[in-house]
Amino acid sequence: MPERDLQYLAELAAQLRVDSVRAAAEAGSGHPTSSMSAADLMAVLFACHLSYDFDHPDDPANDQLIFSKGHASPLLYSLYKAAGVIDDEELLSFRRRGSRLEGHPTPRLPWVDVATGSLGQGLPVGVGVAMAGRLERLPYRVWVLCGDSELAEGSVWEAAEHAGAEGLANLTAIVDVNRLGQRGPTRHGWDTGAYARRFGAFGWHTIEIDGHDPGQIDYALNDACNTRRRPTVILAKTRKGEGVLEVENREGAHGKALKDPDKAVAELGGVRDVHVEVRKPVPGATPYRFAATGIQVPAYSVGDQVSTRTAYGEALKALGAARGDVVALDGEVADSTKTQTFAEEFPERFFEMYIAEQLLVAAAVGMQVRGWKPYAATFAAFLTRAHDFIRMAGVSGASIRLVGSHAGVAIGEDGPSQMGLEDLAMLRTTYGSTVLYPCDANQTAALLSEMADLDGVSYLRTTRGDTPVIYEPGERFPVGGSRVLRQNPGDRATVVAAGVTVHEALAAADELRASDIPVGVIDLYSIKPVDAAALIQAATTTGNLITVEDHRAEGGLGDAVSDAVSELGPRVVKLAVTDLPGSATPREQLSDAGIDHTAIVAAVKRLL
Amino acid sequence: MPERDLQYLAELAAQLRVDSVRAAAEAGSGHPTSSMSAADLMAVLFACHLSYDFDHPDDPANDQLIFSKGHASPLLYSLYKAAGVIDDEELLSFRRRGSRLEGHPTPRLPWVDVATGSLGQGLPVGVGVAMAGRLERLPYRVWVLCGDSELAEGSVWEAAEHAGAEGLANLTAIVDVNRLGQRGPTRHGWDTGAYARRFGAFGWHTIEIDGHDPGQIDYALNDACNTRRRPTVILAKTRKGEGVLEVENREGAHGKALKDPDKAVAELGGVRDVHVEVRKPVPGATPYRFAATGIQVPAYSVGDQVSTRTAYGEALKALGAARGDVVALDGEVADSTKTQTFAEEFPERFFEMYIAEQLLVAAAVGMQVRGWKPYAATFAAFLTRAHDFIRMAGVSGASIRLVGSHAGVAIGEDGPSQMGLEDLAMLRTTYGSTVLYPCDANQTAALLSEMADLDGVSYLRTTRGDTPVIYEPGERFPVGGSRVLRQNPGDRATVVAAGVTVHEALAAADELRASDIPVGVIDLYSIKPVDAAALIQAATTTGNLITVEDHRAEGGLGDAVSDAVSELGPRVVKLAVTDLPGSATPREQLSDAGIDHTAIVAAVKRLL
């Protein structure tokens, strides 16, 4: 590299450090030192290797950059300033109310695709973006800037395993090994060899460099681009706070503005006005999409016994035929969730993520960045493994579709470890989420198609065992709606149910009618958003609501109902799973948990 | 090994297979094939290496065995039968209602310490048990039987990193590499070298063997016992369904009873009556505990400004002085959570788990198996990373204490990725949990001590910023209680708050009183169990409850209150975080989220 270029890169990096210090100083908080360690790495990437059109962030040929160490946001924003897409005034709005420049990057900025700040998520999400690139037959690259501390997260090794085994050569991890975590030295310090051995064992190409030497950085980034059949990790030895004696390579300087920013800026050579010209990709690229071959929505006859998981599999296959942008991801349980039905028809759009639920969700987030419609399925219970990824998908505004099978005690003999009893609560708390819970096969098929165009995180909960088909094929079930299944003028109470308990509620209503106690039944298939109007009407009419759910008493259907009617003040009796189940048949489980038709009858009688 | 011993081991293994087939056949479900692959491994372990007194499962000198592949429960129960602690009749009660022999092992059995069935959890929990062994200065060994499929879970590599780096030589992982997962071949099939390279890179001693050769198994287990300063992984190549042609090494035979069990039993040589004599440990071992040095509970003066996280750190230090069984674990944020205060006083009882929250919780579960009182702390937001481990801790009945700092929007500028807004919902759904949320420093100290003797998963939520001390030192705050802070005969409504919102509620009550609208205020520091009596009384008196919480609207304090009073039917207005926060000061955040005193005043006025 010519001396002139090296000088330019040094100047650019110095400006990035200066601006990181200034932004944090103005905010009075933030992570300047974690930004300074990675400044040379990002200066060389932006000046020499990144291919990105800042005027057209949606250009499908753009490289994808993920700041997994999201706390280094001052560096990212300083890069934006150097690239000329934000000005100095906006830079100095860092961390202020209303500013797009938040403490950690979010997609409020047009050049940020996924929110980061929960460590260990950037690389798994990057795997999904890289998988999409292969599918789209586009040559963009995925660059992920990681910290060294976050390599302790297991999710990083789920990503390393998948990328290594699949040979995702379009993925490069750049690890800023600054040796200092939040509270002190990392486990491996500057031993980049320790990380190289680990990534190497997982099938990655590894390069160890001095992360402050632009020549070595340039060589490594080139090497990453030229490496075939393997992802590359660049392990860059750096110094936290590089360039300012007060904080350089010192403990106790994490996550704080510098004490004397003016002195620091002077030490770094003062404020500059260096511009970085990021190379634009060749225009006109079109991502490959699969052809739509027509739809044949599955139809089930009323009275048939079909599990909702079976209907999900068949409906997903139909959706795959109707739309070329639908993809499916599996946590090595596709035969149980029935994603297998889709996989057999569309093997090239089916992704086996093995038993790695964090990666399962992260890869879905990565694929939706590129416009795909991912459906990711596993047992409802095991989605809890990915809770933090689901939470962050909500922050990112990512449109992913999650499917949790084997909901509740109704699974029967397998016991509590396999029962999804917390999933409704988890998905309801997710920002911007939709939570759906069908009770029959036709309803499942209808809701599955509804999900395809929903924004945000949406969730479909399915049941292991067969349930009777009660709705005609082709009926519509809008998100946010409900179905009144029993309603009589003299109703003494209304039973609100969803999924497997709808059938228990119907049986209970029949039994109660025989005892001259008419009750209404609502199928609340949309748990979030919830049909407040229908619930309020029922509450107003009968004054007594009985909720019944195959889920824990906290945070699920019962709470959704209470919440919808709470300002009205009807009596609400909640039937839910409160004890720890053991092994038993599905019927015994429903009875033992007190959520079967007998329990509903007893609750109504007790209430009245 | 003499021929006679080899014959005995072959007979014992054959019986384990026969009994696994019989138990699953009787149940009509279960995992006989996954049991059969590991039968030789466990036969040799039980006959030659395990040190365990089945009559005294609490003997501290006992080895610890964890079936991480919990679906191989038929094998575990067949081992119990061979050891003579259950009879054939009980074996055949497998998966039946009321039986201790559940689909996946749980501590309902006296010889099972932790429930398994969610894969990838046994090894991280084993790390905690092994850490305890080192602390207790006892020579017991920890044996973890893993499947090959579950090695895809990131949590396994969090455990591998910690055990390798810490040199936990008392830990042995035995991996049953039967090459077949649930839906088909695993990623690496029989390539035990792929796993050996990975574990080797993480610092483990690795041994690759034929898992059906008792001589090789015996050698490997011996080698594990004789290896110093490193944990050992035995990678055993096996065949799923070994011994029965119908299922041996075949796809599609996962998780099902055999079609023709009688033929299979005949093929395996018929029913046997082989007894295995498990060697007992030398009696009289006593685990080391640290000396108690007296307690000096921190006391804060009313009116002082102290953050609850600071009080947690100081109270934990005091508790550590008072009790020799208290240990603390950190997810590399001890300076933020303030576990650091404990760490500085008791470095030998402080465990840095780095940024690996699944391992953080799992290690706590492992340590409590041995009678320690672990407190594990990180940001509340990042506890979501460990949701599945918390869920399973609930199933295990594990007594662990979790502390989540940086709760809610009140953290300020850092933005949504760092805000714990889902933690109350997550912890409330956990079976058998306790959820506490103090509003001042003295209350924090009091609740922290209460937690030490609680059963099950307990959770303390702390706040980043300073809050005024409102309670006198030494006041008691029983779990399940609440505090009425304002109450007047003419109260028009009652505001129910906890943590940071208590102070907002008090300010609102003062403002409202100035407008001649008296309202009551309840500090609901115990979110679960909740003080239903106090809430019902308030609801009965004023008829109007306003809940206000720095948490999402779903599953938190508001839902807990609604639930407690739902059968009574007062009006409940819920103030909670509904939008996606950005960066702003703590005060701006509370205002933007509509949970500050101004919002409370407005809500009361709107309601009345």
From TrEMBL, chains A, B:
It comes from Nonomuraea maheshkhaliensis. Keywords: Calcium, Magnesium, Metal-binding, Thiamine pyrophosphate, Transferase. Residues 306-469 form the Transketolase-like pyrimidine-binding domain. The keyword Magnesium applies. Homodimer. Belongs to the transketolase family. It comes from the Bacteria. This is Transketolase. Coiled coil: none annotated. Gene3D superfamilies: 3.40.50.920, 3.40.50.970. Pfam families: Transket_pyr, Transketolase_C, Transketolase_N.
